Amino acid sequence: MERDIMKKLVAWKDSPDRKPLLLTGVRQCGKTYVLKDFGNRYFEDTAYFSFEGNKGLSSVFDYNLDPERILKELGSIVRGQEIIPGRTLLIFDEIQACPNAVTSLKYFCENKRELHIACAGSLLGVSVRRDGISFPVGKVERLQMYPMTFAEFLCADGEQALYDGAEQLPLQRELPELYSVPLMKSLKYYYVVGGMPEVVKKWVDTHNCEDVSRLQDNILEDYASDFAKHAPKTDVPKLGWIWDSIPKQLAKDNNKFIFSHVKEGKRSSELEDALEWLTDAGLVHRLEMVSNPELPLSFYADSTFLKVYMADVGLLRRKAGLSHKTILEESELYRNFKGALTENYVLNELLAQGIHPYFWRSGNTAELDFLFEHEDRAIPVEAKANISTRAKSYAQFCKKYEPPLGFKFSMKNVGEHRVENTHTYSIPLYMIWRLGRYLDL
């Protein structure tokens, strides 16, 4: 299954200023697969080493951090084949399990720049915070990987021609039913399946929703096992409480994350570290509130007023106990949660495009789903689960702050109009992958 991040890996490979690469992302989002595939495609040789549960491999880094010695021992003793700069891609997987290997990247950067070294770590953020790993600041390039986007899912599911055709349509043109109908159908499937590569492959192979759900259950159980394996013992119950509360809190009309709703009698000061752990692990995404949309938005963000979403919309669907039939048959009974599912989907799509949004709230009178910074602008975004695009909060934001550009994501076809003085593009939820092209207009 083709991943968009491959283009970034190739650009890294060809960069004259290349540093060791650190690929991070939630566990099971495909980091190992994509690095091995990258090595097979673009290098004569790939040397793969995983540190998870491998004390013998970690011992190579105990004596000193001299790159020449490390490469010699890895090649001649551990692997039995020489590692040749310029020809070999060296992969360190689950690098957080060997703190000295993380530190060694500084010396590979300074003394062995000609070597292509790519590392993957699912829980690196957790390990740096917990174990005090000496992180080589400024000596590595970082890439964040996410579960498969809707466009990647579409192509993996045999709809490459549909994607290519839709991609070639002019941005201002309404989509004919030849495109809109199958894209809407595929988006429903994506809400069921999500973007975890193993789950997507199961869907592609079987198109059986029950098989998909069983595999999603396994992944959710694996994540819960990670709590007990990698988190401080005192935080394990808290992680479970927060993890279980996310679908419930998203389903509420006011889906602000409220710590007291996680567990009766618990306060934010008792649970904040656990939420930070889930964030560092990539399992959840925090969306902070901005009440004053001046640039930079990060300066005005309120980290105490937030929403919490899951890293994958399919896992959210399954964790909420929502049947695939409810989504595919458009049951009226899931009208409220459909909005939460849509917001989670939109956030995941934005993050995959390198956009890290906030949300805007004006007292208790108006709330804008997303607000992000692009060049010298604050861009408002309203997300609707259905065709209706009436959005009082969006109009109120535009009237008050007069942004030159904004977006409405919904099931409505492509269009453009003015809201107050804001040039507003309507983009179907199934075409969010083209957002960058609209921003470039």
Q: What is the radius of gyration computed over CA atoms, rounded to a whole number of angstroms?
A: 23 Å
> How confident overall, as mean pLDDT?
94
Number of helices: 19
* Main sheet overview: 8 strands, mixed
> How many extended strands?
13
Q: Which parts are unreliable, with pLDDT below 50 for 5 consecutive residues or more?
A: none
Strand content: 15-25%
Helix content: 40-55%
Please tell me what the overall shape is: globular
Which class best fits the helix and strand makeup?
alpha/beta
Q: Largest beta sheet: what is the strand line-up? A: 7-6-8-9-10-11-13-12
End-to-end Cα distance, whole Å, is 31 Å
Task: Describe, in plain words, how this protein is organized in 3D.
This protein has 441 residues and is α/β, with parallel strands linked by helices. The protein is built from 19 helices and 13 strands. An eight-stranded mixed beta sheet has the order 7-6-8-9-10-11-13-12. Strands 2-3-4-1-5 form a five-stranded parallel beta sheet, with helices on one face. Helix 18 links the parallel strand 10 and strand 11. Helix 7 packs across helix 8, helix 9 packs across helix 15 and helix 11 crosses helix 15.
